[in-house]
TrEMBL record, chain B:
Alphabetized UniProt keyword annotations: Cell membrane, Membrane, Transmembrane, Transmembrane helix, Transport
Residue stretches spanning the membrane: 9-27, 101-123, 135-162, 182-201, 233-258, 287-304
Bilayer topology term: Multi-pass membrane protein
Top-rank lineage group of the source organism: Bacteria
Residue ranges constituting the ABC transmembrane type-1 domain according to the UniProt record: 95-305
Organism: Microbacterium suwonense
Protein family per UniProt: Belongs to the binding-protein-dependent transport system permease family.
SUPFAM superfamilies: MetI-like (SSF161098)
Protein name as it appears in the record: ABC transporter permease
UniProt-annotated location(s): Cell membrane
Length: 510, 317
């Protein structure tokens, strides 16, 4: 019946999108201030239940085969663990491994396992489980992380407590890859249906999942390490931002993540919440199709970058920092590149003139779950230099097909949330179509470099070239706002759209 | 009667088959596939291919279609490509929200349509009757989504009587809360549908007023209005049942919009989400179940009609 209008797009659609979590930050507007951490009013209650409001629900729990920030966010470290993990500011630390050693030639990684690790079904974890898990990543293309394991030569277990991984050539990114889904350890020959159940080693077990609404974790009392400070955690999925704020205000959630900066004042005014602003590696990327006219002309790309008032854009989005290059602050190789593309509409006009394209019509392809703020700002900024921008809103699936797979676009906007993903700029087949042999060489060197600092230097050089080539524009580096009720302490602040480590969180009684 | 039922039954099955083919093949027109969504933006083409193979998406379309139909004939609606969960089980779970919602909407629609429709027919030609008629026309033209937002503004924000969003996590084990959270959504559909139905009830009543048996009753000493109320309106009932059957489709479509607006975990919202994630096996089964539901209602309405209305019986037999 035609009387009914098309329904508003559900934020749930985005759940599978690896970029999706960042969408939350983007729809945002308004100001947010950082406050002090909440002061607990009493003693931590070990039997407490914590309710966390989240926006994007995972579509299934099979982190081995499904990509998606919504999955990693809740499962890694809480349900599943790897040999190593990463801290909130993306530093690598041991987890299942009590220690790790890298041979001087950078080829052999030796991990020693912690004592007393058990899977949730009670069986003990041994090095053989690690070997079988990692063999699967290496040999099965359908398993997440398969490409990251391309350089793995062998995975062996000299004894029950030791795992040895040998690479064909040094790979500076390899250990970091182990902090993601690729590095998680599963029981050998496990029959658990990972889409709906789990058998991990983490401090929490999956208790219940009512699809479309909530996922409940319970403390795993036989956990090998420091036991969790909460008896139960409920992730309550609320796809609508306003509904999320309402839920926080009426007390149905203790913590609300990904608060819309537009709505944050409502929470602040209530006086019941502390708001934290967390850093992320979300790169709001305005991609240019580098191989297609007119964007194959660097003067055009440069002009577009100069036409964007980045400060004003960040202001409009409501949270985040400006970012003028492909590497965010939390990743190695970061450098402030604001000098490369300062706001200069006059220069932009001159460049377009020089390139002979004064009256330019361009199309921006943008997944529909992102808000309208960014597109509006771009339309108005570009109009000032004589470029008219048509905004084409598409479903994420369509974006993946047209832009990501077939490179059929002019301008595209998505948030690239993965940390340390600079490699995409060294891959001419990636949808950016950016092909600079110098960058590829520097990236390869940085990966083969054994010294992390020297490696970061090489990345820094490469990132500067990418930015100077105007391969894309980086509109901003996203930030994530979290609202906490008093009594909750230890809730992580940074990078929580890719990892919420629950183990250290406590809540006071009452 | 039996012959009619059989012929009509064969038509029903043919309708279902044709719908299944249309649903299956038109969905394949959508750009993008679930394997790419599962793989994400860091995956290479090999990984996407491996996932496609694992999901059986590399098989020829016709094979995929016959596999699907074969499964349904064995009572298996398939498995979600994304979540791995049984489509049938999830449909049943979501139906616990959508069917009560549809039922409540229908009840509200009837509570509005019947009294006001008859009243406006009785008051025909007077100011009150005209006002009701015009009002119904205006309300019927309101988009459901706008009606929903207005109701939220009034009942949730101003008065604070009813929740504006969501369904209790505990579901129907807390019936009062569940009922409460369905009330605004049901009113949203019910009011708009009710206004449409009301116009129908009005015209059916007026039509009945012109029938011989009403006139006869009036001739026997009843007033025109008494004759209409005692003899005319019961006769209207049957045609209202027919229209209600047709309205079921409208209510289902309405629930898609309303579940979205009120974030209710029902069939409508599941459908929208599944289309977005290209979980096509799930979408096609869901659509077929809904189509089947509407077709079966049409079938039952026809049978009832046939059984009651002598004119139709003569035509068909």
């Amino acid at each position: 019946m035609s009387r009914f209008r098309t329904p508003r797009r559900s934020a749930r659609l985005t759940a599978v999108g690896i970029l999706a979590i960042g969408a939350l930050v983007l729809t945002a507007c308004g100001g947010a201030t950082e406050s002090t951490t909440p002061t607990p009013t009493g003693k931590a209650d070990p039997n407490a239940e914590l309710t966390v409001g989240l926006v994007l629900e995972p579509t299934n729990l099979d982190i081995r085969h499904t990509s998606g920030a919504a999955l990693e966010q809740i499962l890694v470290d809480n349900i599943y663990e790897g040999l190593v993990t990463r801290t909130q500011d993306n530093q690598i630390e041991d987890r299942l491994a009590s220690s790790h050693e890298i041979s001087p030639d950078g080829l052999t990684y030796t991990f020693t396992l912690n004592e007393g690790i058990t899977f949730h079904d009670g069986s003990a974890l041994t090095s053989a489980d690690v070997v079988s898990s990692y063999e699967a990543v290496k040999t099965d293309a359908a398993v997440q992380g398969n490409t990251e394991f391309a350089g793995v030569e062998s995975i062996t277990a000299p004894d029950e407590k030791t795992v040895e991984i040998t690479l064909a050539s040094p790979d500076q990114n390899f250990l970091f890859a182990l902090t993601g889904p690729a590095g998680l350890v599963f029981k050998t020959g496990d029959e658990t249906d990972l889409k709906t159940a789990e058998n991990g080693t983490g401090p929490f077990t999956l208790q219940r999942w009512s699809k479309g609404s909530a996922i409940t974790f319970a403390r795993y009392d036989d956990y090998w390490g420091q036991k969790a400070g909460l008896a139960q955690v409920v992730f309550q999925y609320i796809p609508d931002f306003t509904a999320g704020v309402n839920a926080a205000l009426d007390g149905s959630v203790d913590v609300l993540t990904a608060v819309d900066p537009n709505l944050v004042s409502q929470l602040e005014d209530s006086g019941q919440f502390t708001i934290t602003t967390g850093r992320t590696t979300d790169k709001a990327t305005l991609a240019f199709n580098n191989v297609r006219a007119p964007l194959d002309d660097q003067r055009v790309r440069k002009a577009l970058r100069l036409a964007i008032d980045h400060e004003a854009l960040v202001e409009a989005v409501g949270a985040g920092e400006t970012l003028y290059g492909p590497i965010p602050e939390l990743d190695p190789g970061y450098e402030d590149l604001s000098d490369v593309a300062p706001y200069d509409p006059d220069e932009a006009k001159a460049l377009l003139n020089e390139a002979g394209v004064e009256e330019l019509d361009l199309t921006l392809t943008i997944p529909s779950f992102y808000g309208t703020t960014v597109a509006q700002v771009l339309v108005s900024d570009f109009a000032k230099v004589g470029v008219s921008l048509e905004v084409d809103r598409v479903e994420f699936a369509t974006w993946l097909e047209d832009v990501y797979k077939h490179h059929d676009y002019q301008l595209s906007f998505v948030l690239h949330v993965e940390p340390r993903d600079f490699g995409n700029w060294a891959n001419p087949d990636y949808y950016f179509g950016y092909d600079n042999p110098k960058v590829q060489e520097l990236y390869a060197q940085s990966q083969a470099e054994l010294d992390p600092d020297a490696s970061a230097e090489l990345l820094k050089k490469a990132a500067r070239i990418v930015s100077e080539d105007d391969a894309a524009d980086w509109l901003y580096n996203g930030a994530t706002l979290t609202a906490l009720t008093p009594g909750v302490s230890g809730f992580p602040k940074d990078s929580i759209n890719s990892r919420i480590d629950l183990a250290g969180i406590t809540k006071t009684a009452g | 009667m039996l012959r009619y039922a059989l012929t009509r039954g064969v038509l029903l099955i043919a309708g279902l088959l044709v719908s299944s083919a249309i649903i299956f093949f038109t969905l394949r027109v959508l750009p993008g596939d679930v394997a790419q969504l599962i793989a994400g933006t860091q995956a290479g083409p090999e990984q996407v291919e491996a996932i496609r193979r694992a999901l059986g998406l590399d098989k020829p379309l016709l094979t995929q279609y016959t596999d699907w139909i074969g499964g349904i004939l064995h009572g298996d609606l398939g498995t979600s490509q994304l979540s791995g969960a049984s489509v049938g089980a999830e449909l049943v779970e979501k139906a616990r929200v959508t069917w009560p919602l549809a039922l409540m909407s229908m009840t509200i629609a009837m509570l509005i349509a019947a009294p006001f429709g008859i009243l406006s027919a009785l008051l025909r030609g007077r100011a009150g009757g005209t006002a009701m008629s015009v009002g119904a026309q205006a309300v019927a033209a309101i988009p459901v989504i706008w009606a929903g937002m207005m109701l939220v503004v009034v009942f949730a924000h101003w008065l604070g009587w009813l929740p504006a969003q969501g369904f209790p996590r505990t579901g129907w084990s807390t019936p009062a809360k569940a009922f409460e959270s369905l009330l605004l959504p049901a009113m949203t559909i019910g009011i708009v549908e009710g206004a449409m139905l009301m116009r129908f009830v009005r015209s059916a009543t007026l039509q009945a007023a012109g029938q011989d048996f009403v006139r006869t009753a009036a001739a026997k000493g009843l007033t025109r209005r008494q004759a209409l109320v005692r003899h005319g309106i019961p006769a209207v009932g049957l045609s209202i049942v027919t229209v209600l059957g047709v309205q079921v489709a409208g209510i289902i479509v309405g629930s898609v919009v309303v579940e979205q607006l009120f974030t209710l975990p029902g069939i409508g919202r599941m459908l929208v989400a599944d289309v977005g994630t290209r979980d096509l096996v799930k979408v096609q089964s869901e659509l077929l179940v809904l189509t089947g539901f509407v077709l079966v209602i049409g079938f039952l309405v026809d049978l009832v009609h046939h059984a009651i209305d002598p004119r139709q019986r003569q035509e068909a037999d």
